[in-house]
Target: Thioredoxin
Amino acid sequence: MTQNDARIVICPACATANRVPAAKLGAGGKCGKCASPLFTGAPLTLTSANFDAHASRSDIPLLIDFWASWCGPCRQMAPAFTAAAPQLEPHMRLGKLDTEAERAIAARYAIQSIPTLAVVSKGREVARQAGAMPTSAIVAWAKSAIGR
Ligand SMILES: [Zn+2]
Model:
């Protein structure tokens, strides 16, 4: 890897693709279109409008929390997932997918139970884990999924 290797980073605010030198991923870059920070230290909300950009177009692997508001274990795990974001960025993007609001995406991934965590890189699912986890386990599992 050289200094000039660019990575496609999808803006969490407007889903525009930004090219960022690999060496500057963690340098607090902003979106060229809307000037929002490219990494916020928090999970973003995945919808049909931004899902494919983050799951398929981005060079940053996407860690998805498939959840629903009626799911107690999902709500219990939510703070742990949020706390994992600053530990995994900028090597991963964390996003939450409401399986009730975005049924088509949940169906595409054949989500059987929630919470389910999945890692998707360039459109390909590389890991999946059902059940709630504490922050430390989320971080360790996600890092192993992307070989870090
Ligand atoms: Zn933007």
About this structure: The radius of gyration is 15 Å. Helices lie at 51-57, 72-88, 103-108, 135-145. The longest strand covers residues 124-130.
